[in-house]
Amino acid sequence: MPMAERILPYLRRLDATRIYTNHGPLVGEFEARVARILALPADGVASANTGTAALAAAILATAGRATVERPLALIPAFTFVATAMAAEQYGYQPYLADIDDETWMLDPTRLVDHPALSQIGVVIPVAPFGRPVTQAPWLAFQARTGIPVVIDGAACFGEIVDSPQTYIGAIPVAISFHATKGFSTGEGGGVASTDTDLITRIVTALNFGFHGSREAQSAGTNGKMSEYHAAVGLAELDGWTDKRLAFQAAACGYRQAAEEFGLADRFFATPDIGMPYALYRCRDPIEAAHVQRALQAAHVGWRLWYGTGLQHHQYYSDSGRDDLATTANVAPTLIGLPMAPDLTQAQIAYVIAVVAAAVKDLD
Hints:
The chain is α/β, with parallel strands linked by helices. It contains 14 helices and 11 strands. Helix 2 runs parallel beside helix 10, helix 11 (240-260) runs parallel beside helix 14 (345-362) and helix 12 packs across helix 14 (345-362).
């Protein structure tokens, strides 16, 4: 995150204006700068106080509330719980679908003839670990089925900036600016789209349904980004180029170490996935459990970022679902390794050496 001295000039501007929230000047500047990076008009980005609030507002503005006829939100089982909970905020029941083994995403070509299609009110593809979702196949799915689509982009900001025309379009992309993401305001989020009318509806949904007056014109919530978080975001933008380069250097360091140990074909990092992730894919759950124990013993942090699938969370265990064989195979084997822009090559080499030794134990 930006150091205090980088944030201080923006806090001084905040003190001068005495505007602390409700679409203040810092939020406006932040949204405009993000829009420029994404090659969008200034009103092509709506900021939010969390990524989950951004996603929920995008669902409401795109698909409306769930109906008796269409109560389901089709989502991948391989995702963080926020995807499902955002859909539930506007009455949808999550329906869990399986992912593709190579992309770890929903495949729209497999869903056009889904047996539950007549009950689905919205489809929410997820950018797994920040691997961005291409707009074109989902636009085709939306045109063919008539079902609204909202993309949960989560950690994809660092990967969409190099080709925004591929990943940003009429389908809204909700992005998280949480502190665990490569680009962060500490806590926060936003929605990007070429459809500026849709962005206006999202802004309205994030502000109690208010638009141009204090009369609620739609359903909504209090999801606005504060001026304080915008100050952090502006400081983050000031150092964005250097931070990206540092993450890329860490990823290169990981790949070099993985190559030395013969593990490069099972290691994933930016630009293939989002900047804040370094992933090692084990051959099977047995190897995964062994690697996890080895990392723990060596005092190296690790994560199964999406657990073993939403179907294994107590709250979602009774959710409607397809056969989730691929999720069951992939989820336990993708181990998140430490990743940060200031990791040293010595630290990276240590982590990979621990993984390599654990893998060798099983050969």
